[in-house]
Write a structure and sequence with these properties.
By secondary structure, the chain is α+β, with helices and mostly antiparallel strands. It has one domain: Beta Barrel (OB fold (Dihydrolipoamide Acetyltransferase, E2P)), CATH 2.40.50.140. It is built from four helices and five strands; from the N terminus they run ααααβββββ. It has helices at 5-12, 18-24, 29-34, 36-39; strands spanning 43-57, 60-66, 77-81, 90-102, 108-120. Strands 3-2-1-4-5 form a five-stranded antiparallel beta sheet. A hairpin with a 2-residue loop joins β1 (43-57) and β2. The radius of gyration is 16 Å and the shape is globular. The termini are far apart.
Length: 122
């Protein structure tokens, strides 16, 4: 096996195999939609641009992010968080994938990322 600097560093630091890095890497919005059944209940990290914000609804903030991937029905990711950002901010979110979430009053989400941390980029 050919050892790379990354592999050696990961081993020395006790970070496990390179596959661990791949699992923790940010996903595109299109990939989250594509793999939603596999990702249900799991943590994901996604980077994108905030296109809509609704703060203080049902004790949480709702953000919509896009990253330029996906099509008409899978290019916008809804996110809930206690943190917020502004429209136009570039963010990294990390939260749990939830499928078929029904908040009542007609607010149904086939896919949503909940309890997310929101980090605004510089």
């Amino acid at each position: 096996m050919k050892l790379t600097t990354t592999f050696v560093l990961a081993t020395v630091l006790g970070l496990g195999s390179l596959n661990t890095f791949a699992a923790d890497a940010a996903k595109t919005i299109e990939a989250v939609y594509k793999d939603k059944a596999k990702l249900e209940g799991k943590q994901v990290t996604v980077k994108g641009k905030v296109v809509k914000v609704n703060n203080g609804i049902m004790g949480r903030n709702f953000l919509h992010i896009q990253d330029g991937t996906g099509g008409k029905d899978n290019n916008d990711l809804s996110v809930t968080s206690t943190q917020t950002a502004q429209v136009g901010d570039k963010v990294t979110i990390a939260g749990k994938v939830v499928l078929n979430k029904d908040f009542g009053s007609g607010y149904n989400y086939p896919l949503i990322v909940e309890e997310a941390s929101v980090t605004v980029g510089k």
